[in-house]
Queue: 4 jobs
Job 1
Amino acid sequence: MSLNLNNGNEQMKEDENMNSRNDKIEILEIPKISFRERLRNPKFVAILALIAVTTIAIAYSSTMQLIIYAEYKQGHVYAQDQNMEKAVEYYRKAADHGYARAQYKLGICYANGEGVKKDMEAAARWWRRAAAQGHSHAKELLKKNGLSD
């Protein structure tokens, strides 16, 4: 029986109800096995390998996301400094990795001829990629410019 200082009577009733249902709680004892002994078990080793690979994959994915975002932000900095050729270079790096905001911005650069030759077909291609990922502004520009499929 557990002790509940807030409402002891209700807790006692709950405990009695549990006992009347004949509920049994089994406590499993985990055998004490050394780590070296566990390493002899192929299932244990497989689980460790899976954990290691998953951890590395998550770390790699997170690192790649940071790199892609940094490329996009570098493009943004160049755009603010009016160096559109460099802005396009970094937007393209992030866009090629599938970053929707960079795809959208690169489309704007093509549409306006900023840092690249003006090319509405290229703009539409980049906006479509961004729109396919749910980028609402890219969808609006496609519609506004009559480029929707």
Note: Residues 42-80 form the longest helix (39 residues).
Job 2
Amino acid sequence: MRVRVVAIRFLLCGLAAFVTYGYAPTAFAGPIEDGDAAFSRSDYSNAARYYKLAADLGDAQGQISLGHMYLLGQGVSQDEGEGVRYYKLAADQGMAIAQHILGLQYFSGGGVPQDYREAARYYKLAADQGLALAQTNLGSMYFNGLGVPKDESQGIRYYKIAADQGYAIAQSLLGSKYFFGQGVTQDYTEAVRYYKLAASQGNADYQSILGAIYSQGLGVPRDYREAARYYKLAADQGNAGAQNSLGVAYDKGLGVPQDYREAVWYYELAASKGNAGAQSNLGLMYAKGYGVPQDYVRAHMWFNLAASLLSGEDGKNAQTNRDVAAKKMTPAQVERAQDMARLCRASNFKLCEPAFKK
């Protein structure tokens, strides 16, 4: 069972994220401000020294900041156990963010023995103070029965509380639950509503999902133009799946004017990130001479790469297309295509002789 717990590690700059939850004005503003200033200029040794001055005098913000330094080994020797100790001092003062981080540590077994019950306890302490991250993680604990009795309805309740605060991960999880009917009655309309809330915050994954939903007409009327719009939003952020899907849209003229060169452009963007579907599609463009000069050597290369990554019918199709291309090539051309595929793969798809400069 794959647990959908959001294990977020904090990379805190100036620790401004802490201010929202539970901070009264600190009596130790001097050391904290000095520590933040040192941290912002990457002077971690002095940052840790200033935070320790405040932490040892009982300042919760200093304790959290120093806990963070120990967790990541910034300015001090990395010591998750010591980081946990400082987080506990802050958590005992009611600091929601410290309680949540302790939940993460107990969930993963970082600096403490793994203990799902203790993780759930700390998540709940933070969730009860309104911390959306903790509410989402607690929802996942209930959904999967980790540290608490399995209760999908309780999991949904916590996701909704976090989603109502605008937390995109909770919104996307609710979108998935409604889409697949997990813990709720399957409802594509409600799934789309939550995915849209998440996508509106600029997350490429959710934008790409919405593109697929509009392309297939699930919970909404099929709308290729809207699908292409969402794919473009995600593709512009580097989402390989969306880049491949947008390539297909230009290839087939779905929601956008048919444009083979534009299709090749997006296929190449996705293929260079290791997207096997895009690699196979790019092979077809070279084999047919669509958007690029016909080139069986490059077609063979891309089919070969795709075949090594794809399985099932897609993998067989890529192999078949590669073999068809090989029959139209000389032995020297086949050998060159194989060498190109090896170089492309070894360079993590960076040296693949693209048609267009990125």
Note: Confidence is low (pLDDT under 50) at residues 1-25.
Job 3
Amino acid sequence: MEIQAGFVYISNNINNKYNFTKPLLFIKTMKNITKILSIVILVFAFSANVLAQATAIASATIVTPITIVHVSDLSFGNVVPSATTAGTVDVAPDGTPSYTDVTATALPAATATITAASFNVSGTPAATYDITLPVADVTLTGPAGTMIANTFVSDPSGTGTLDGTTGTQTLNVGATLHVGVAQAAGTYTSAPFTVTVNYN
């Protein structure tokens, strides 16, 4: 019997040399496994050092489209022209008229009402929006001639703000009517004019 590398070996044959092959192979195998494990650990450590990751999310917000709905038309009421001078009728966004070289009359009553054009604007609560009014002249055509309306004004002017709760606002539009000298009597109307609103 002989002690070698922590193992006790007894020869199978006292005439044979002691057999140290198996313990030496075991020790060599363990060394190889240790080397492999060391390499694996180094590889993982290296990978951890060179690899970096981050995450993100995707999102989108659907916004309520802005809309504008006609409520009432622009009416200049009854106008009496001058026989010698052209004149104008101004209707403010609040419906208040003012006259230059023309006068108003209460008759006929059916057409005497003076109103600014009115629209309801709706969309995202508290949003602001741009207002675009007609720039070109709007032609009113009657039984024997025409008149023009221009210089459109609005309230709110330029930019509006929708109500923070309901998401709505009233938009009123006025303009100036140009009345010719001795303008022919009759009812004059225009083609629809356009008022545009856009979120800003």
Note: The chain has one helix and 15 strands.
Job 4
Amino acid sequence: MPAAGSPAVHFPRRRPIGQAASREFEQASGFRFTDDSRWFIAREPSEEGSGSQMVVVNLRDGSVHHHAHISSYILAPRVGVVLGNVPAQRRDGDRPALELLHLNSGERIRIDHGRQATLSPDGRRAALLTQPPKGNQRLIVVDLQTLEIREVGQAGQFDSRPLWHPEGDRLALVQRDGESSGAVGLAVYAAGDDVGLLHELDQRWVLLYSRFDVYRASPDGERVERLTQGREHRIRFREHRLDWHAGPPDETSALYFSAFNEQDKSHGYLRHEPDEGARWLINQPRRLQFLQKADAADAFVVMAESATESPNFHFTDDDFRTLRRVTNTNPQQ
């Protein structure tokens, strides 16, 4: 793999924008601009007669650069880097590659067997997968400003595109064990200053939402279980974590769901136990939110408010029969 500091390369071909170029762009698509308005890229029919190629226009000097070997691309507009897919038939070897092209410097690196690239929330890094002919797949992160490459993790088979956490410090993927066709589950990797596997959701399921209900499903989609009964009563259920900083629930954990009735506008909470199924904890004609549990006791607090009641926290034990107000906010605030 070329080093990030490899010499700058020349663009394949340069041509001033003119009448011929204007006619050429009539069949172009996928138009994108960099944030500094210096570069414009698009996809056009390949000169070879099949497929497509990438064309790059320098809006400052009017030059046009064709990249016939790149069939599709992702643009990181903030840093002016293109992540281009190079099909196997357009390069030496029998596997595709991913090429990173820094538009301002002309520097580029090629990552053999690269695929499934996704940009970080700030647009300055990219996560992607590589599949060597032998061995495990690799999850890598590329700094798009320096083109530095860091390996984050390996697995027998990643089965999804990397998904960034909104804060940009974690990546989640579905992964398999490489020896069977069954999905292992979700894996979460650190992708900030430190890298590596954080935890695996080895319970082999994920939660999915419909308009009203929550379903538990295996990552391969073979097993799907409906956990709530909201559709019949137009009640919208969503997962509620008592502690979002704790690890993910496993097959023995109770699951909590918030509830909102679209007909009478009531709110509530539901708890699903692995052996007992789902049961209502509380349902009231006022807004309930921020349900939390004590660390070492079966005691809860929840905020309640209505059109005539200012928001206050209430205490209750595990049966949720009585709510005792523990705060007294100013109704004028």
Note: The longest strand covers residues 183-191.
